[in-house]
Amino acid sequence: MRHLITLDDLSNFEIEQIFRLADQMRVDLATWSGFCQGKLLATLFYEPSTRTRLSFESAMERLSGRTLGFTDPHSASVAKGETIADTARMVTNYADLIVVRHGCAGAARVMARYASVPVINGGDGSHTHPTQALTDMYTVIRRKQKVQGITVGICGDLRYGRAAHSFALVIARFGGTLIHIAPDAFQMPDWVVSRMKHLYGQEPLEADQLTDVIKELDVIYVNRLQAERLPRDINVEVGRARYLLNADVMRNAKSDAMIMHPLPRVNELSFELDEDPRAAYFEQSANAIPTRMALIASLTGLEELVLTQPPTREISVGDHLCDNPNCVANYERYLEPEIETLGGQQITATCAYCGAT
Ligand code: CP
User: Fold this and answer.
1) What phi and psi, each to the nearest 5 degrees, are found at residue 276?
2) pTM, whole model, 2 decimals?
3) Which of 84, 129, 141, 308 could crosslink 163 through cysteines, CB 3.0-4.6 Å?
């Protein structure tokens, strides 16, 4: 049985296999429509969502499966203090597959540990959003045919934006060049940069202003400020103007650049760009359906055809709790600390739940 907790759970070959399947499903849904007949997907959303939850539910139902779950944790027994472990043990009895979104980094990993059905991470705190990154990369490949060699600028709140973390990591892994565009307070966290370096040999450039680098970019990936995760002492206004993307800024961009955004947008991506042929963000959210259908099918029936080359990771018990206040290990107190060792020339140890170095 396989889970998708971060994209480190899939090899490059497996990601490409999922994209091949997504292509088939996109053009010929009828062939696949009965694939999940009689199967149930549980969607456990401890945090709000429009795209992730509804596209997973749509994907499951297009495969003739059914869905159950909650969208408000106050209506579930977590409000009475139930742990993630016990929730996982219960939902295993009710469903064949679980998608979970949670406010703590590493929560999906905990759910996978205690569930005996495949678990998909639908976003865990300010850590990762792997299925968003699958959709994003699929969208890049559909427009650009490749990731290798393209220059991707990721701008906005890179510190707390989980979609930005997963997208940056997958682009680095497939050979794209990254520029991280944000003021210091919102720059990419060390744990992401460290993984890029140790796993993929990449050292991304940093820029303070989008206008300084716009001419170089093949992909401009905009993120909103993660207002729900910001510490109280951060001045939100400091960051906003530096990366507002509007028609004026896009005048200096390449004619075939792609504008991407995981959505929802707030005020960092101007509505005037919606008709610009370079805008790819609605296409990006539409691509969530074939990619999530392909992922569901891969985890629930096609494992032996699609998921054939699992990556190896070095994980062991740690000797102290993680320092990251958003890490699940600091809330679910039955968990033992675990560390992941990243290889390469310089060995580094990271929290296996939240990736913190
Ligand atoms: N992109 C994304 O995760 O959107 P939702 O929060 O609406 O699911």
Assistant:
1) -70, 130
2) 0.96
3) 129
